[in-house]
Amino acid sequence: MPNDEKGKCMFFVIVGDEAFALSEHVLRRYPNGNLSVQQRIYNYRLTKVRRRVECAFGMLANKRSIFHRPLDVTPQFYVLHNFVRRNDGFQLEDNLYDSNFESIQATGTRGNIEGKHVRDYTAKHFTSPHGAVPWQNDEV
Question: Do residues 1 and 125 lie in contact, with contact meaning Cβ atoms separated by under 8 Å?
Answer without folding.
Answer: yes
